[in-house]
C-alpha cells in the first residue's frame, strides 16, 4: 500500500541520518582517506577470473522460503522477515589485466588544447604553464595501433569499428620512450593528486578502454603526412650501406630472417627511410607525456 511504502522510505531516511550523525567523524575520516589514496599501481582493465577466487564471509540477511505460485505454477521466493546470519561463499570474479604505474602528472602540448578542454568538462583540474621548463618525461609510441575491429564492445554493430558515434581505436603494443622535454608556456599540466585524479589516468592512458585515445580523439597521430620517392631513397640507401657497416649488417640480417620483408621492395626502401633523419619522428607518438617518479 502507498502509505506503507512512504513509511518505509521515511524510516530508512531517519535511520540513515541517525547513522550519519552518530558516526560523522569516522565517516569524514574514511572519505578523506579514500580520496587521498593514491596507489602506485593503477588498474586500467579487468578480465573474468577462471576459476574465480573465493572466500567465506558472514552474511546478515532475511530468511526466505520457496513456495509454489498460484499464478505461474512455478516456485518463487518469499521473504519471511526473519533475520538470519550465515556463512556464504564470496567470489572474486574479475582480475586485473592491464596495470600502469601512476604518474604524478601528465603534460598536454598546447597544440592539443581541445584535450585539456575535454578534461575540464569532466571536472578535472588542468593547469596552464606560464614559463618554459626542462623535464625528463615518458612518452608512448604506438607502432601497431589501428581502428578496432569487432570485440565485445561493438559486436552488435554491423559496422564493428563504430561505437556510439565514435571510431574506436585499439592501441596494440606500446613502446615507452624517455627523453628530456622542453615544456613551453601554454602547455597544460594535469596532476593526478586531485579529487578526480583517477579519472585523469583512465582518460589519458591509451591502454585504458575508456581513454580518449581509444575513443578516437587522437586519430591524427596514426596518419602519415610524409614519404620519400624511391628514386631518392635508393641511391641514398646504397650510400648509407657503403658508409655505415652497422646499418648494413642490420639490413642483411633482416633480409635473412624476414622473407616477406625481403620480397617487398617498398618495405626495404621504407626500412632505410626510417634510418634517415628525414623520417617523421613523431609518427605514432602519443602526444601526452607522463612524469617519471
Commentary on this structure:
It is built from eight helices and twelve strands. The chain has helices at residues 2-22, 24-35, 113-121, 197-204, 230-243, 245-257, 259-262, 265-275, and strands at residues 41-68, 75-101, 105-108, 127-128, 133-141, 146-147, 162-163, 166-167, 169-170, 175-183, 188-191, 289-291. α5 packs across α8. It is elongated, with a radius of gyration of 28 Å. Mean pLDDT is 91; it is low at 151-157.
Give a brief outline of the structure.
The chain is built from eight helices and twelve strands.
Topology:
Elements: H1 2-22, H2 24-35, E1 41-68, E2 75-101, E3 105-108, H3 113-121, E4 127-128, E5 133-141, E6 146-147, E7 162-163, E8 166-167, E9 169-170, E10 175-183, E11 188-191, H4 197-204, H5 230-243, H6 245-257, H7 259-262, H8 265-275, E12 289-291
Antiparallel strand pairs: 1-2, 3-11, 3-12, 4-11, 5-10, 5-12, 6-9, 7-8
Helix pairs in contact: 5-8
Short key terms for the protein model shown above:
32% strand; two-stranded antiparallel sheet; alpha+beta; six-stranded antiparallel beta sheet; 8 helices; elongated; 293 residues; 12 strands
Low-confidence parts lasting 5 or more residues at pLDDT below 50? 151-157
Question: How many beta-strand runs?
Answer: 12
| Helix/strand order, N-terminal first | HHEEEHEEEEEEEEHHHHHE
The fraction of residues assigned to DSSP E strands is 25-35%
Helix proportion range:
25-40%
Distance between the termini: 60 Å
Q: What's the number of helices?
A: 8
Gyration radius, in Å: 28 Å
- Main sheet: strands, sense, barrel: 6 strands, antiparallel
Strand order of the largest sheet: 4-11-3-12-5-10
User: On the 0-100 scale, what is the average pLDDT?
Assistant: 91
Query: Can you tell me the overall shape?
Result: elongated
Provide the structure class: alpha+beta
Amino acid at each position: 500500500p502507498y502509505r506503507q511504502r512512504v513509511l518505509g522510505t521515511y524510516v530508512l531516511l531517519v535511520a540513515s541520518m541517525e547513522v550519519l550523525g552518530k558516526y560523522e567523524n569516522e565517516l569524514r575520516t574514511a572519505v578523506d582517506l579514500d580520496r587521498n589514496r593514491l596507489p602506485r599501481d593503477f588498474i586500467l582493465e579487468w578480465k573474468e577470473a577462471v576459476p574465480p577466487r573465493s572466500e567465506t564471509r558472514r552474511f546478515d540477511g532475511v530468511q526466505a522460503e520457496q513456495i509454489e505460485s498460484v499464478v505461474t505454477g512455478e516456485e518463487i521466493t518469499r521473504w519471511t522477515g526473519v533475520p538470519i546470519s550465515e556463512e556464504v561463499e564470496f567470489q572474486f570474479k574479475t582480475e586485473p589485466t592491464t596495470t600502469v604505474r601512476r604518474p604524478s602528472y601528465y603534460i598536454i602540448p598546447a597544440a592539443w588544447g581541445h584535450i585539456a578542454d575535454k578534461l575540464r568538462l569532466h571536472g578535472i583540474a588542468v593547469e596552464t604553464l606560464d614559463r618554459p621548463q626542462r623535464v625528463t618525461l615518458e612518452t608512448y609510441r604506438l607502432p601497431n595501433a589501428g581502428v578496432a575491429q569487432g570485440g565485445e564492445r561493438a559486436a552488435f554493430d554491423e559496422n564493428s569499428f563504430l561505437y556510439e558515434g565514435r571510431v574506436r581505436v585499439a592501441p596494440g603494443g606500446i613502446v615507452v620512450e624517455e627523453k628530456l622535454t622542453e615544456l613551453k608556456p601554454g602547455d597544460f599540466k594535469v596532476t593526478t593528486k586531485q579529487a578526480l585524479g583517477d579519472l585523469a589516468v583512465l582518460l589519458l592512458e591509451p591502454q585504458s578502454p575508456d581513454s580518449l585515445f581509444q575513443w578516437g580523439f587522437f586519430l591524427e597521430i596514426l596518419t602519415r603526412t610524409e614519404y620519400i620517392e624511391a628514386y631518392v631513397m635508393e641511391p641514398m640507401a646504397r650510400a648509407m650501406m657503403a658508409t655505415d657497416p652497422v646499418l648494413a649488417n642490420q639490413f642483411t640480417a633482416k633480409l635473412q630472417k624476414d622473407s616477406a620483408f625481403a620480397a617487398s621492395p617498398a618495405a626495404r626502401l621504407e626500412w632505410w627511410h626510417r634510418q634517415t633523419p628525414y623520417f617523421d619522428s613523431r609518427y605514432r607518438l602519443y602526444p601526452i607525456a607522463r612524469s617519471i617518479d
